[in-house]
Amino acid sequence: MDIDVRGPRFGAAVTTVVLAVVLITGSAWLLAWQTLAFVLGAAGGVGRSPYGLLFRRFVRPRIGPPTEFESPEPPRFAQGVGLAFAVVGLLGYAVGPEWLGLAATGAALAAAFLNAVFGYCLGCEMYLLVRRVAVRAE
After folding, report:
1. What pLDDT, on a 0 to 100 scale, did the predictor assign at position 116?
2. Cis preceding-peptide flag for 97 (omega within 30 of 0)
3. What is the average pLDDT value for the chain, to the nearest integer?
4. Which residues 6+ apart lie within 8 Å of 80 measured at CB?
5. 3 in helix, strand or coil?
6. b/e map of 54-82 (b: 16 or more CB within 10 Å)?
7. How far is the CA of 105 from the CAs of 65, 89, 95, 115, 118, in angstroms?
8. How far apart are CA 27 and CA 105, in angstroms?
9. I need a labelling partner for 123 at 20 to 30 A (CA). Which of 49, 82, 92, 109 fits?
10. Is residue 112 over pLDDT 90?
11. By CB neighbour count within 10 A (0-12 exposed, 13-18 middle, 19+ buried), where does 6 fall?
């Protein structure tokens, strides 16, 4: 079943704010929260992530029904990519080196910002590239 394209963008906007605060404060606890959000989004799809639930409960009723839909697989894959960067960032903040935490969090922030502001999902594009390469390999 396809998903409302505005949901992942809303999630990316919240993720952008959370990751920016992580970079400003160096909070490993806040990055742990974002890591959990990525786990839930990657495991259950973006609609089951905390930000997807917020979107469905509070935002979508106020902005009306969707007019555009997308396949759920690319955003779900993107959550997995975000999860990988968040885990690396968490390791950097928790056990060092700190620059690793900063770099991984910054990379995840850049990707979330691109999706939130421009609707360009790097993880989704990676998913499509992986699919094309897999089909050619068969």
Report:
1. 98
2. yes
3. 96
4. 38, 42, 123
5. strand
6. ebeeeebeeeeeeeeebebebbbbbbbbb
7. 33, 5, 15, 15, 19
8. 11
9. 92
10. yes
11. middle
118-124 CB contacts, 8 Å cutoff, 24+ apart: 119/5, 119/9, 121/8, 121/12, 121/74, 121/75, 121/78, 122/78, 122/81, 123/74, 123/75, 123/77, 123/78, 123/79, 123/80, 123/81, 123/82, 124/74, 124/75, 124/77, 124/78
14 - beta bridge partners? none
pLDDT at 85: 98
Structure confidence at residue 136 (pLDDT): 85
Q: How many helices (H) and strands (E) does the chain have?
A: 7, 2
- Note the pLDDT tens digit of each residue in 119-136: 999 999 999 999 999 988
pLDDT tens, position by position, 18-32:
999 999 999 999 999
Q: Are 75 and 46 in contact (CB under 8 A)?
A: yes
Opening angle at CA 93, ends 97 and 54, nearest 5: 150
